[in-house]
């Protein structure tokens, strides 16, 4: 599914990724580790087509993903439906006035009808145990609740791949346990999971650990 071949990337002439190559199969659970500044978050951005390699090739389901490809609005729309990305800073991801509207945002951008949107939102609320938060404003929630809403909002499009950047940051013990169990559940139903984490919470669940 995901193939990264000889990827190089730099910020202001400072190399971050140097000739990095890997493949991630459908349904694989991968944890990415490494020191601060080694390119973990950059790698996630490249996979999600938010940044692009200066050298090397990234292919997703056999299609090269580059600036030219995502300039095609129809292609970019279809591609971003396939990948759900939960940011390290959850506050940067949540901006709607209610949890319902937050989860409904992506389906509305895809111009689905409101009946289908309502079904998807209800399904995600149940899946993440956030039904009681439906009318709440996301910025008033706890960090654990915000993480659940962020996960629900990206899963509303039923992506093939779920990417999370340092998902355990600022979570209490109960929320961390929930997230581990939830991602294990998602993996068991065939989702491809890619996580950047400096903790060992996901190591036993992972099919593979990549060290940068």
From TrEMBL:
CDD domains: ABC_cobalt_CbiO_domain1 (cd03225). It is found in: Cell membrane. It comes from Eubacterium coprostanoligenes. InterPro entries: AAA+_ATPase, ABC_transporter-like_ATP-bd, ABC_transpr_CbiO/EcfA_su, ECF_ABC_transporter_ATP-bd, P-loop_NTPase. Keywords: ATP-binding, Cell membrane, Membrane, Nucleotide-binding, Translocase, Transport. It is a peripheral membrane protein. Pfam families: ABC_tran. GO terms for molecular function: ATP binding; ATP hydrolysis activity; ATPase-coupled transmembrane transporter activity. Transmembrane segments: none annotated. This is Cobalt/nickel transport system ATP-binding protein. GO terms for cellular component: ATP-binding cassette (ABC) transporter complex.
């Amino acid at each position: 599914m995901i193939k990264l071949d000889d990827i190089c990337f730099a910020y202001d002439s400072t190399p971050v990724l140097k000739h990095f190559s890997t493949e991630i199969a459908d349904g694989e659970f991968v944890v990415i580790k490494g020191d601060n500044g080694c390119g973990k978050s950059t790698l996630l951005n490249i996979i999600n087509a938010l940044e692009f390699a200066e050298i090397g090739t990234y292919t997703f389901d056999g299609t090269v993903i580059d600036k030219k490809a995502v300039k095609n609005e129809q292609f970019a729309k279809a591609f971003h439906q396939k990948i759900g990305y939960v940011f390290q800073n959850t506050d940067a991801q949540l901006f709607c006035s209610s949890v319902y509207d937050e989860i409904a945002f992506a389906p509305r951008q895809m111009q689905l009808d409101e009946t289908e949107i309502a079904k998807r939102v209800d399904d995600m609320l149940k899946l993440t145990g956030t039904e009681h938060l439906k009318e709440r404003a996301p910025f008033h929630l706890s960090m654990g609740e915000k993480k659940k809403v962020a996960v629900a909002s990206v899963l509303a499009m039923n992506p093939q791949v779920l990417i999370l950047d340092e998902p355990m940051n600022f979570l209490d013990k109960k929320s961390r346990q929930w997230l581990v169990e939830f991602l294990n559940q998602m993996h068991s139903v065939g989702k491809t999971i890619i996580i950047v984490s400096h903790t060992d919470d996901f190591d036993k669940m992972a099919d593979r650990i990549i060290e940068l």
